[in-house]
Amino acid sequence: MTPTTFDLIVVGGGIVGTATALALARAYPGLKLAILEKEDRLAAHQTGHNSGVIHSGLYYRPGSLKAQNCAAGREALYAFCAERKIAVERCGKIVVATRESELPALDELERRGIANGLAGLERLDATGVKEHEPHVAGIAGLYVPQTGIVDYVEVTNAYAQVVRESGGMVRTSCRVTGVERQGQDFRLTTSQGDFACRTLINCAGLHSDRLARACGVEPGVQIIPFRGEYYLVAPQRQNLVRNLVYPVPDPAFPFLGVHFTRMIHGGVEAGPNAVLALRREGYGRFSISLPDLFETLTYRGFHHLARRFWRVGAMEYHRSFSKTRFVRDLQRLLPELKKSDVVRGGAGVRAQAVDREGKLLDDFHIVNAEGMIHVLNAPSPAATASLSIGSTIAEYAGKAVQR
Length: 403
Prior knowledge:
The chain is an alpha+beta fold. The protein is built from ten helices and 20 strands.
């Protein structure tokens, strides 16, 4: 059977994949492109399971891809939402130190924020923390005005609509099961028939390393899935939090710690923790895939990682199964919070790239190969930075598109 042929195919219908397709559609009018998504809807995994925070760029090492893309992407996202009339709010957040030992890290965050171009940062003493968040306890804090909230599923669908308006195809329930090189072209076997293209862009998230290998590219990393679990603050107690409240993160670990997030459509989330997921799309505590788990447990990089962080991992698992422990950690920021004030909410799974030495890749990791681009690590702030990341990938793809 003759495959349906495109100039370029993006595999993965999350926010990075759709933003990339949008950038390509705008840069190359008339380009015949398609997005293939294995689920029955876009933004089904990482994009659709986060709190909807528009990040400021506070945390990231100046000069890193994260810092560069977050700053540009943040403002582009605010502008896109205004253009498309998507509900968004630039509400600001505070990062709170609750111990003297956290003050040096708070100082470093302030230095990074200034280096990354954040205007209007406000260093807070205990009284200042109370002025922003009356129920939050802290000895010092940092107010960050650029932070906002949005619904990233709505944003992703809006990106995809722009692609459709430009003549592109967006196909859901279309799982890629095989990739074959045919001369300069690629033939993709999918659950909806065969497709062919000259250029392939891999934005497959939790399966990006597998797709790279299926394309004959050794990514040098493996995706290790980490589940983040949330609680929801009861409606009658949501007044305890005005906007977003974060702890000072542990610089030795790439997660930000449990925090409070007001959401764009109402409600307040508390969390997440960070535990090893037993399957790549394991949103439940008892969700397990033996092949996925075997792949994780036999990976050399995981062995190194486990040796370094087993104590932290044990603590996170304890918090996963103990509401008492979870709430106790939340009470560091919000002492008035009671166990009865929260109910278990949803969960997300982070596609964390880990190299063979057990290093958790903290920055974006994109691998170019002949006719291909593989996005192998796109952690937070990927959603915030999506338009900037998409434009960067479109630049990478430009030469291939014009072959």
